[in-house]
Each structure stands twice: as structure tokens, then as C-alpha cells.
Design goal:
It is a single chain. It is built from seven helices and eight strands; from the N terminus they run H-E-E-H-E-E-H-H-E-E-H-E-E-H-H. By secondary structure, the chain is of the alpha+beta class. The protein has two domains: 88 residues, Roll (Endonuclease I-creI), CATH 3.10.28.10; 104 residues, Homing endonucleases (Endonuclease I-creI). It has a four-stranded antiparallel beta sheet with strand order 1-2-4-3. A four-stranded antiparallel beta sheet has the order 5-6-8-7.
Length: 231
């Protein structure tokens, strides 16, 4: 039985295309075998993201589900969708998505009008928001730390991401992970506010991960920021 999907989805830039392309660089994978079978796969612990991918691609493909192993508390339920489509795979390759991209991905050329959508898509897959409290001994009080970060196995990709944000954020550090490998691009409080504005200004609800968006809102509430002045 054939499945429906938009085979031309990645041919023309749009907010939807940029968002899914960004997410593809995070949680998407391309596969080609010797029998001429091409397919695109997305895997995530967030069912919401996989549902968004299917909806935006106009796909009727089944979402598979894998239960968390009971004996491993660090293992989460996993959701996956596979789309067999040679044309989509070839279009993604032209845009810089390659097989086994984790360690060698390069940041693609994204039109300025769609950089916010692309970054939000990647952030929903491999980004994070952190709001933590620590005791500041020198002042004898509690202090809040608010940061955001992007994770990648490719330092080149994060370097390209940092350059794409130039003029929007003023800092940010790329640090190598020592235990699990890979790199983090970390933004401080001020730059996290600028990132929020870039990613979520006029963003439709079907193109953002609510869980991460809500952490931003919680941070603004705790830190007493005026959201109207940010977004």
C-alpha cells in the first residue's frame, strides 16, 4: 500500500521547509542501500515532534513506538517514522544533509528570512533550555542561572550556527564534551533572550516543541522578565 507525502517539500524555501530541515539536521537520518532503496527516518523521544514531521510533510506513514526498558531508568520511550522517497533524499543531499552526518555535518546556507525557523527546528531536536538555582556564598543568597545550548557531534556545524546568529547574539561558547563526546554551543542569559526572540517571534504552534517553549516561559516568570518586550 502506497503512502502519501509531499515529495516536493524540500525543493522550495518556506517557514515549514526551514523548520523541518533544521530538525532533520538534528534528529533525521538518510539511508541508501545497494538495492536502490532510499528513505528518510526521524527518531525522537518526543512524540509531539514526530507528529509534527508527519503533518508538515503531508505524510500518512505509520509512527512506530518502542517502550522504555524497565531496568534502565535513563532509557526513554522512542518514536520513529520512516519515509521511503528517493526524491526527498536527493533534495536533502543538495541541502547538505548526508548519511552518517553526526560527526561531519556542515551548517547549510539558509536564507536570512528563514534562519529563525531553521534554528528553532534544530533546537527542538538538539537544543536545551536550562534554569537552575545555586547558592551564592559571597552574597549569602540564591541566584538563578538561565542558559540555552545546542548540541552536535560536529564542531563545524556549531561554528556555522554561531556565525549565522552573528548580529543577533553577541557571545556564546563552544565546549567539547568529555564524557559522551560531541560539542555544546552555550548561550548566556542575555543571548538566550535574543535567541528566544529569533526563534519564537510569530512562530505558529505547529512548528515549535511546547515542552521547551514552556521552559522559556517559566524562566521569564521566575526572572520577572516582561515577555512582551522579548517576543
Amino acid at each position: 500500500m502506497s503512502k502519501d507525502f509531499n515529495t516536493n517539500f524540500f525543493k522550495t524555501w518556506s517557514s515549514e521547509m526551514a523548520y523541518i530541515l533544521g530538525y532533520t539536521f538534528a534528529d533525521g537520518s538518510l539511508y541508501k542501500n545497494t538495492h536502490g532503496y532510499y528513505y528518510l527516518e526521524y527518531t525522537s523521544t518526543d512524540a509531539e515532534l514526530i507528529e509534527k514531521v508527519r503533518k508538515l510533510l503531508g505524510s500518512s506513514h505509520k509512527i512506530s513506538f518502542r517502550l522504555r526498558e524497565k531496568d534502565n531508568p535513563n532509557y526513554k520511550n522512542c518514536y520513529r517514522i520512516q519515509i521511503g522517497a528517493r526524491l526527498i533524499v536527493e533534495d536533502l543531499e543538495k541541502l547538505g544533509v548526508i548519511q552518517n552526518k553526526s560527526l561531519v555535518a556542515k551548517f547549510p546556507e539558509v536564507p536570512r528570512a528563514y534562519i529563525g525557523d531553521f534554528v528553532r527546528g534544530y533546537f527542538d531536536g538538539d537544543g536545551g533550555v536550562n534554569l537552575k538555582q545555586y547558592w551564592r556564598k559571597s552574597r549569602n543568597n540564591w541566584n538563578w542561572v538561565f542558559t540555552t545550548q545546542f548540541t552536535s557531534g560536529s564542531k563545524d556545524f556549531l561554528d556555522g550556527l554561531r556565525k549565522s546568529l552573528k548580529g543577533r547574539v553577541v557571545g556564546g561558547q563552544i565546549r567539547q564534551k568529555h564524557q559522551r563526546g560531541g560539542f555544546d554551543f552555550i548561550l548566556s542569559r542575555h543571548d538566550s533572550l535574543a535567541l528566544f526572540k529569533l526563534m519564537y517571534d510569530n512562530a505558529p504552534v505547529d512548528m515549535l516543541l511546547k515542552r521547551k517553549y514552556n521552559i522559556f516561559l517559566k524562566a521569564f516568570e521566575v526572572l520577572k522578565y516582561n515577555i512582551a518586550g522579548v517576543a
